[in-house]
């Protein structure tokens, strides 16, 4: 049986798509080809471990790689997931990218507008105590993992620092995974993280995403992959215009609500997070 020896578990809207591309570019690292995010420990746990291992190479092929992983950023969030991972991958290692929680929440909002035709304003969404806010309470989520795994099993990167110095981040990543840092694809490394275009037809795109999720629930990934490779996804997007920056006053107010969790996180993982407290 082949199972991953490391997982990228979050955080959502914090550069994990960029990280996925970087990891895939390395010849010593295997990530599932058929599906980027498998969601076994979240959505599909009832399908059993045999279903999960079908996404990974057979032992003879697996020996060609020094590291086998999976990237599913929602894994950090759900309370039941750490114990499930411990049961099946007891020595698992974890990679996390954490982003300023206010910026992360706003990027998450933009993702919902683009992909799921979200109609509420950012402030309206936050007022309803949605998981857009709750996903930024990192200390609570990491604490659940530390009930089952040692902090030594974690590589925790800070998004803002990664974007400033990608070479340093890759050095940390290579050291954590014991791979050659010079074998990451430099073209992939230079790509920007969490950039998005405006939506032309948000309601149609929302339906398309629902159809994709339906196909994946039936293990018909190949149908969606063929459609995506044809470029159909770009029909719904214009090019190059990112979501406007979060308003400074909104960011300051939101950060004040996250402050106690940021302080708890600093103590939990022994890290200075003043980079998140700097003025807008």
Biggest sheet details: 5 strands, parallel
Helix content: 40-55%
Radius of gyration: 19 Å
Question: Which regions have little confidence, pLDDT < 50, spanning 5+ residues?
Answer: none
CATH architecture identity of the domain at 6-101 and 135-192 and 260-276: 3-Layer(aba) Sandwich
Distance between the ends: 49 Å
User: Could you say what the CATH topology of the domain at 6-101 and 135-192 and 260-276 is called?
Assistant: Rossmann fold
Task: Give, in spatial order, the strands making up the sheet with the most strands.
Answer: 2-3-1-4-5
Tell me the name of the CATH class of the domain at 6-101 and 135-192 and 260-276.
Alpha Beta
- Rough shape? globular
How much of the sequence is in beta strands?
Answer: 5-15%
CATH superfamily of the domain at 6-101 and 135-192 and 260-276: P-loop containing nucleotide triphosphate hydrolases
Structural class: alpha/beta
Number of DSSP-assigned strands: 5
DSSP helical segment count:
14
Q: Could you state the order of secondary-structure elements as H and E? A: EHEHHEHEHHHHEHHHHHH
Look at the structure and give the mean pLDDT: 88
């Amino acid at each position: 049986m082949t199972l991953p020896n490391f997982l990228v578990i979050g955080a959502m809207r914090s550069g994990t798509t960029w990280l996925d591309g970087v990891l895939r570019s390395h010849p010593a690292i295997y990530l599932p080809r058929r599906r980027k995010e498998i969601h076994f420990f979240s959505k599909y746990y009832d399908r059993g471990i045999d279903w999960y291992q079908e996404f990974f190479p057979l032992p003879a092929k697996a020996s060609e790689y020094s590291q086998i992983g999976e990237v599913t950023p929602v894994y950090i969030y759900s309370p039941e997931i750490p114990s499930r991972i411990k049961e099946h991958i007891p020595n698992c290692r974890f990679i996390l990218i954490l982003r300023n929680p206010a910026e992360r929440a706003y990027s998450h909002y933009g993702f919902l507008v683009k992909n799921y035709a979200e109609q509420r304003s950012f402030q309206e969404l936050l007022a309803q105590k949605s998981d857009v806010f709750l996903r930024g309470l990192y200390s609570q989520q990491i604490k659940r993992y530390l009930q089952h795994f040692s902090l030594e099993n974690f590589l925790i990167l800070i998004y803002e620092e990664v974007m400033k110095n990608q070479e340093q981040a890759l050095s940390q990543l290579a050291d954590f995974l014991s791979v050659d840092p010079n074998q990451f694809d430099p073209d992939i490394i230079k790509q920007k993280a969490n950039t998005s275009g405006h939506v032309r037809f948000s309601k149609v795109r929302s339906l398309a995403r629902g159809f994709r999720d339906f196909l994946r629930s039936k293990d018909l990934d190949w149908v969606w992959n063929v459609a995506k490779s044809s470029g159909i996804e770009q029909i719904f997007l214009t090019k190059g215009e990112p979501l406007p920056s979060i308003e400074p006053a909104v960011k300051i107010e939101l950060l004040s609500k996250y402050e106690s969790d940021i302080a708890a996180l600093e103590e939990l993982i022994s890290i200075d997070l003043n980079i998140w407290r700097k003025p807008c």
